[in-house]
Amino acid sequence: MRKIEFFDTSLRDGEQTPGVSFCISEKVTIAKQLEKWGISVIEAGFPAASPDSFEAVKQIADSLNDTAVTALARCVISDIDKAVEAVKGAKYPQIHVFIATSPIHMKYKLKISPEEVLKNIDKCVKYARERVEVVEFSPEDATRTELNFLLEAVQTAVDAGATYINIPDTVGYTTPEEYGKIFKFLIDNTKSEREIIFSPHCHDDLGMAVANSLAAIKAGAGRVEGTVNGIGERAGNAALEEIAVALHIRKDFYQAQSPLKLSETAATAELISQFSGIAIPKNKAIVGANAFAHESVIHQDGVLKNAETYEIITLELVGIKHNSLPLGKLSGRHAFSEKLTELNIAYDDESLAILFEKFKKLADKKKEITDADIHALFTGETVKNLAGFILDNVQIDGHKALVQLKNQE
Ligand code: KIV
Ligand code: ZN
């Protein structure tokens, strides 16, 4: 079983999500949770971007014990100086240097020739490598780069001392088959006496970021980059929790494993959601509220008899506390009686029949039946305040809201 390093860029590429900005203390809290989750390397930021970015990387570097900390730098000496300075307190510091290699980026964005790009790679990777032992190089927009030039760029970075070669699908353009072939070509043709580790870095513009990342792993990548919940620029990055659980559930196929403590997955996803202000979609794989929910009577009945009929992942695996079967108009008597038991509501055959009929009438009007609704059916009361709390205070800070509730009594 190959071990795959997990590289989290939630604090750098993830923070490029429109509308998302983490404050420094949130970044440190997230970094500590990522360490607890078992992430191998945290890309803590882009120190040249602003004094706050620099400070966040520095504080994260100073506070982690087991996880490597890296910082992003363009192929620009002053960027590398800032990145080196920011990560120097880390137990395992790394530097990530990038420059674009696709014709469109070289011509219109960088306005330099391919030869100048190669010269810059050589100069900047050497410069970074003289200061920090572990350097990753990324040819930005790699998947729209001419393949032989991509190999030249990668070989130049390797010869200059890079240990990790990251192949970004910057605009989410590639497909699993194509991306796998790019990895195979680069792995087979890059020459080095040292071990060179390749990694995918995928964006989700065509909805293939996770599939592309897995294809790269299948083709020999030893590290994978992504973010928690798939946050990131435009449609986002590859969701690391999906990749980790896919490797776990389909180890028969991938023959590779993540270093993650999967039972910390739900807590990590919730933290990112809370601090980013981006709710986890209900139907999101692995951590969405509906990921373990079975509503139709056939599925509910099957799951109650043997969860494996419709569940390939257990709640315990990803650290979700319990699976309350959500009830709706398609739910059957079996699921309904299980819910009564879960809520400690005593019933006999007669009361079950009455309650089930009331439930069916309500379910025709209301899409989702909550636990409070079931209690109300039982007591015959209308539930006015579901949780028994009243709103005490609301503070709005940018896109975040701090809501304080107090007990009604
Ligand atoms: O998507 C991208 O190309 C990047 C690079 C900076 C690695 O995020
Ligand atoms: Zn990216």
What's the gist of this structure?
With 409 residues, this protein is of the alpha/beta class. The protein is built from 16 helices and twelve strands. Helix 7 (176-189) links the parallel strand 7 (164-169) and strand 8.
Structural commentary:
The protein has 409 residues and is of the alpha/beta class. The protein folds into two domains: 2-276, TIM Barrel (Alpha-Beta Barrel); 297-379, Orthogonal Bundle (Recoverin, domain 1), CATH 1.10.238. Helices cover 43% and strands 17% of the residues. It is built from 16 helices and twelve strands. The strands form three sheets. It has an eight-stranded parallel beta sheet. β6, α6 (147-159) and β7 form a beta-alpha-beta unit. α1 (24-37) runs antiparallel to α11. It is elongated, with a radius of gyration of 25 Å. 41% of the residues are buried. Residues 13, 168, 170, 201, 203 line the site of zinc ion.
Which fold name is given in CATH as the topology of the largest domain?
TIM Barrel
CATH homologous superfamily title of the largest domain: Aldolase class I
Span between termini: 56 Å
How many strands, which pairing sense, and closed or not: the largest β-sheet? 8 strands, parallel
Structural class from helices and strands? alpha/beta
The tally of domains stands at 2
Tally of alpha and pi helices:
16
